[in-house]
Amino acid sequence: MSIGGIESIGFTPLATPVVAAPAPAAPSAAAKAAAPDFGSMVLDGIDRLEGIQDRADGLAVRAATGNLPNIHDYTLAATEAETATKLTVAVRNKAIEAFSEIMRMQVG
Q1: How far apart are the first and last CA of the chain?
Q2: Residues 75-92: tens digit of each pLDDT
Q3: Whose C-alpha in 25, 32, 89, 102 is 20 to 30 A from the C-alpha of 1?
Q4: Coiled-coil intervals in this record (predicted)?
C-alpha cells in the first residue's frame, strides 16, 4: 500500500524556487486552450476531495462490519480525508478573504 501525499488532492509543491521572469507579449491561442481555467481547477479539486472522502467512508463501513483485514487502512484514509478537507477549507477561506479585499479597493 502506498500513502499518497498532498499531491493526491491536486496540490503539487514547487520543485524549484519561483524566479521572476519577463512577461510574455501575448499568450498564443494554443496556450490559452491548454491552460485550465480557475473554475475547472476548483471543480477538479472538489471532485478529488469527494473521492478521498468516499474512500474513507467505504473503509469505515468495511471496518464496522468486520470486512476490513487491516484497520490501519481506514485510519490512514480517514486522516487523509481530514487533512484534505482542512486544506480545502483553508483555500476557500483565503479565496473569500482575497475577494473581500478586492471588493474593498477603491477605483480611481
Answers
A1: 57
A2: 999 999 999 999 999 999
A3: 89
A4: none
